[in-house]
Design goal:
With 167 residues, this protein is mainly α. Helix content is 72%, strand content 0%.
Length: 167
């Protein structure tokens, strides 16, 4: 018979959060702050956001649809990340949208004569290289969060699937 990992046994027995849960929470909450900040900034100055999208060679023709889809997606993903039951799906969605944003920056920097920025607030003060690094770091964090969340689901299947919200 295979002995369970000592740490898994301890965590299962005591039902206490471990480092993986804390790091997963921090990653998720960082995304919630980022996405809610970005979404509400876009919605607050929606006209500016649409004008910036209009200048994009890729997104301009779809600016009206994208102008609502991006902030809506950021808000929905934030809510997914706040609940343990939907956190893994939220991390996958966060990684996907961040990968799309990152690839968009790479495309704009390499193939566009005009470099529009539809980001607002603090993010708009970043240069393009800094923005690329920022997005890449958040993409890596989402991937790390996915790995940690899968580990947590394996260790705490009932809690992470939402059958018990509190430990």
């Amino acid at each position: 018979m295979v002995q369970p990992n000592v740490m898994e046994s301890y965590l299962n027995k005591n039902k206490r959060p471990d480092l993986a849960r804390i790091v997963s929470d921090v990653i998720s909450y960082a995304y919630v702050i980022l996405f809610l900040y970005a979404a509400f900034y876009k919605l607050f100055d929606y006209g500016y956001f649409l004008r910036q999208l209009e200048h994009s060679p890729l997104l301009g023709p779809y600016r009206n649809w994208i102008g609502w889809a991006i902030p809506f997606s950021e808000i929905v993903i934030s809510f997914l990340l706040l609940r343990s039951r939907s956190r893994l799906f939220g991390l996958y969605a966060a990684a996907l949208i961040m990968a799309i944003f990152t690839l968009y920056i790479v495309y704009i920097l390499n193939f566009s004569p005009h470099v529009p920025c539809s980001c607002g607030g603090i993010l708009a003060t970043m240069g393009w290289f800094e923005h690329l690094v920022f997005n890449s770091v958040f993409l890596i964090l989402a991937i790390g969060g996915i790995v940690l969340q899968k580990k947590l689901i394996k260790i705490f299947p009932a809690q992470e699937k939402g059958e018990a919200e509190n430990l």
